[in-house]
Every structure is written in structure tokens, then in C-alpha cells.
Amino acid sequence: MSAVRQDVVALRRSAPAISPARRLTNALMGGLISLGTLLVVAPLILIFYYLLTTGLQALSPEFFTQTPAPLGETGGGLKNAIIGSITMLSMASVIGILVGVAGGIFLSEYPKHPLMPTIRMLSDVLAGIPAIVMGLVVYGLLVLRFGFSGMAGAIALGFLMIPIVVRTTEETLKLVPRATREAGLALGLPRWKVILQIVLPAAAGGIVTGIMLALARVAGEAAPLLFTAFGNNTVTTNLTEPMSALPVEIFKLATSAYETDRQLAQAASLVLILLILITSLLARYFSSPRKYRAK
Amino acid sequence: MSQATKRPPGRGLSSRSDDVFRTVIIGLSLVIALIFILSIYQLATVSWPTLSTFGLDFYTGRTWDPVNDVYGAFSMIIGTLVTSLIALAISVPLAIASALFIAEYSPKWLAGPVGYLIELLAAVPSVVYGLWALVVIAPKLAEWQLTYFTDPAKLETYSACQELWLQGTSSFQCFFVPSAADGRGLALATLILTVMILPYTASVARDVINLVPRDQREAMYALGATKWEVISKAVLPYARAGIMGGVLLALGRALGETLAVAMVIGDSQAPLTSLWQNFSTMASVIANQFGDAQQELHRSSVLALGLTLFFMSVIVNVLARIVIKRLTPEGIK
């Protein structure tokens, strides 16, 4: 036995043993923490189980090709809501991306501008405004003057997207090394070209992630649409008319007394959650680190 | 004039195009400020009739009566606070436990998937939580609540409590006795809110715990501490402020959470006498009543709730940012 090993053995013997009480507390807390984690994950698994067992049954081709059946009758689908959701989300993305990316560029590329701290603060605050309150604001701004419309709904959703896009755009732009910008400026490129043609492409992955996350977040929102887009039982892509959306229909159908309505709500929930899941998985895919792509 | 101070050719042009670009960017960024200002202006002007009619009584009044056009928001403010605070009290320890599990206990291969599952909780739409609570949980609760009407001994407790409730009061024991057997109500709303805000605290707590330097842990282990002692004495105190920020973010979410709560809470403005009774929160009243509000004052009162909710969430979120920011520089205390 080497001398060092003997020393270690001696040291172990002389060290006070961990008392049974401390050992017990340690084991107990470890158990509680694992149990707590299980409790946190359990609802998600239960919800997915519920939607898969009930929603799949109710899912049929009619779900995608028909509009809701008249009250109390069986059958029917939610084509109106699917088309409505896609239309409003596209329009909302235009607003969210335009203002959100511009805001992110402003916060990251013009840090010395006197307005910068105010815009950053307001963007953070907007991120915390409840969606239903945003619905009320757009109601006051647009619906009181022009009536319910898909446009009003899209604007409410767009407003909710902005702070998420601003934040992720700013964070990704800041990850682009200073040297990249300086190299561009040193070549005599104007600042706007450096930003649009060098910095933005380098950060594209992160920005797309932010946009996808924002989309996934607002795609499930019904609260801001209740008093703006309102809902519509016919299929329309006209943004000046009232429009339906999947979450709005789920809200209306879930509180209905008819069993068939509830089945439709379950199918709609399954479709909605799968769409959101795919979007957020795509977001993760885009955010995975990749090297610069040469133009 | 020497050659060196002359602007190179083209510089003038690019500086002008830079100005244009900057103006466009700033103009679009100002939309963010515009949204904020318009929100306050809109909500304030439309809720003015209510605020000028009732003044502070709007916040202290206990009657919300559209028939007689009297509006006091006291009970829904209580509803918002009770549901949010109880949900927070239950969810925070669970969220911290899950954050500790991911950061300290779990093997590497498990940490990623568990973290992703917890983040997915935030991606489930509010209406889907509401549907699940209504279809799956409410019937189970109702089954248990029904025993208060079928079991003679429990029925006696219920009858005794009902006498108190009819007078608009309650006792500590009666507060936990169900008042009806339909499953919906304050307790179910709180439960669903608990689940919904879990991911917000959990993800912030996980990030902050991951930021705690390794040295901090190793120093504690070197002193012969057990894993739990390291966590409770070296890791959690260090991550305290960051976790607090996450808790405040979750509180902001809870205050404004609308549809899941509106679907299960029962929309009643009766006085609070039982944890299981039908009740309402500010957000649930907006969702349930705004569409039907015909009188101007009713509409205006609902919007005044929106204005109040707006300011509450602004305050909570600003506090959260301050707390998180105070932590960021060195990550200490």
C-alpha cells in the first residue's frame, strides 16, 4: 500500500461520519425533488393522453372540409376556423416581423440613441400585458369605428408578437461579433448595408426562431380575438369581415351543452396543439447553432 | 485644405442613405411606444364614465349588478388575487424542485427532455387547459363533492355551513366545504392556474441555478456537506434573486390569465365563502361579460377592469425586470 493511499484511508477514518439524520434529510429531499418534477410533468402527459384518446376519434376529413353544422346537429367541421387562423396569423406575422425586427435592430445596433432605454422598457412591459387587455385596446381602436373584422384580430395578435420578436432579434444580433461589423465598415460599406447584408443574414437563424416562437404563442390565443375578429361560421379570407380562429371555436364549443360540440372541440384542440408543437420544433431546429452560410 | 480631411467620394451619399435607414428603423420602433400610449389612452377614455361615476368606490364596492347599473369590482379583485397567490404558493416549490432536478440531480440524457417537456407546458393554449379542466377534472371533483350530499355525516356539515353562507359569512372549516357539486369553481380555477404558471418560474429558476459557479458547490462539498446541504446553503441562496424574478413573471401571467379561468370558475359575483364556490376574476369577467354588456356603464366598467389589469401587470413586470437585472451583473445575492 502506497503512502498516499494510507494517508487517504487515515483521513477517511478521522473524518466525522455523516450523521444518520443528515443522511436521511439528504435522501428525503432528493426524493421530494424527483417527486416534484414528476408532478410538474404529469399534467402535460395527461393532457396529451386526453387529446390523443378523444381528439383522434373525432378527427375526420369533414373536420378540414366543412363548416360547423347547425346548432344541435351532428357532423360538420371547422374549415372556417382553420382558414381564419391561417389568414389572421399571416397578417399578424407581417406586423410582428416588421415592427419586431426593426425594434430588435434599433435596440442592438443603435445602443447610444437617447430613445433606446425607453423603447427597451416599453417592449418588456408590452410582453407582460395580458392578451385579453390587448383585445380590449384593439376593440377601442378599431372595432368601435369599423366593426368586427379579421384585420382587427390580426392587429391584436401582431401587437402580442412584437415584444417576443424584438427580444429574440436583439439577443441574436448581439451575438454577432463586433469584428464582423467593423470589417464591413472598414470596406467602406454604409452602415445600413452592413446591418442588412452582413449582420442580419448572420443572425437569421435566431431571428427565425424568435418569429416561430411568437407565432406558436399567439396561435393558441383566443382572448384577444373574442372582441376583435369575433368569429364567423362561413369560410372567408376577407380581412374586413368577422373571422373565426381555432382557439375561438374551442372556447365556444367547450362551453356548449352538446356532446358533438365537445368532440369537435377536442379534435380542434388536438389539431391546434400539433400545429403549435410543429412550429416550436421548427423554432428549435432553426436555433441550433450553425456556421455562417456564405452568400 | 489637405487631401486627408476631404470626404472620400460617395461618403455623402452613404451617410444620407444611412439617415434614411435609421429613420425607418426608429420610426418602426416608435410603433412600440405608440402601442403603449394608445393602450393607456383607449382604456382610460372608455373607462372614464365608470371611474367618474363611482370613483374609488369602484374598487371597494362589493356589488356588481348590471340590472341596477351599480358596479363595484372588489370581489373580482379578490378573485384575481386569491387565485393568483394560491396558484403561486403551490407552483413555486414545484417549479424550483423541477429546476433543481434538471440542474443538479438528473443524468445528462434526461435533463434535456425533461426541460423541454416543462417548456411545452407554456405552449399549451389557454383554451386547451380550460377544455381539459372542464371535461376531465371537473367531473372527478364533482364526484367527490357529491359525497357531501349523499353521505349523512357530511351532509350535516354541509347544512351547518350553508346556514353561515346564506348570511354571507363563513368559518375556517366551512371555507373548505364544497357549496355545490358541479366541479367548477374557485378551486378548479386555481388548480389549472397553478399548472399554467409552472413553466415560467421553472425555466427562469433553471437558468439561474445553472449560472451558480461550480466553485460555490465544490467549496461546500469540500467541507463535507451532503448534496441537499450544498443545494440549500450554497446554491439556492445564490440564485435567490433570479428565482424571485421568475416568480414575479409567473405572477404577471397568473393575474392576466383569462380563458382557462373563465371557462372553469363559474362567473359568479357572490361573496367569497367557500374555496369551492363559483367566483370570478377580473380577466374572467372581461371574457364572460364584455360581449353581452349593453348599457354604457356596464361596458365602461368592464373596460375599467381592463385598465386596472393593465397597470397591475405593468407594475409586476417592471418589478420582475428590476429584480432580474439587479442579479445579472455578478449573479450574486
UniProtKB/TrEMBL annotation, chain A:
Gene3D superfamilies: MetI-like (1.10.3720.10). It is a multi-pass membrane protein. Pfam families: BPD_transp_1. This is Phosphate transport system permease protein PstA. PROSITE patterns: ABC_TM1 (PS50928). It is found in: Cell membrane. The chain crosses the membrane at residues 32-52, 81-107, 119-142, 148-166, 194-216, 264-286. SUPFAM superfamilies: MetI-like. Belongs to the binding-protein-dependent transport system permease family. CysTW subfamily. InterPro entries: MetI-like (IPR000515), MetI-like_sf (IPR035906), Phosphate_PstA (IPR005672), Phosphate_transprt_permease (IPR051408). Keywords: Cell membrane, Membrane, Phosphate transport, Transmembrane, Transmembrane helix, Transport. Residues 82-283 form the ABC transmembrane type-1 domain.
Automatic annotation (TrEMBL), chain B:
The chain crosses the membrane at residues 20-44, 73-102, 114-138, 186-209, 302-324. It is a multi-pass membrane protein. Its main location: membrane. CDD domains: TM_PBP2. Pfam families: BPD_transp_1. Keywords: Cell membrane, Membrane, Phosphate transport, Transmembrane, Transmembrane helix, Transport. Belongs to the binding-protein-dependent transport system permease family. CysTW subfamily. Part of the binding-protein-dependent transport system for phosphate; probably responsible for the translocation of the substrate across the membrane. PANTHER family: PHOSPHATE TRANSPORT SYSTEM PERMEASE PROTEIN PST (PTHR30425), PHOSPHATE TRANSPORT SYSTEM PERMEASE PROTEIN PSTC (PTHR30425:SF1). This is Phosphate transport system permease protein.
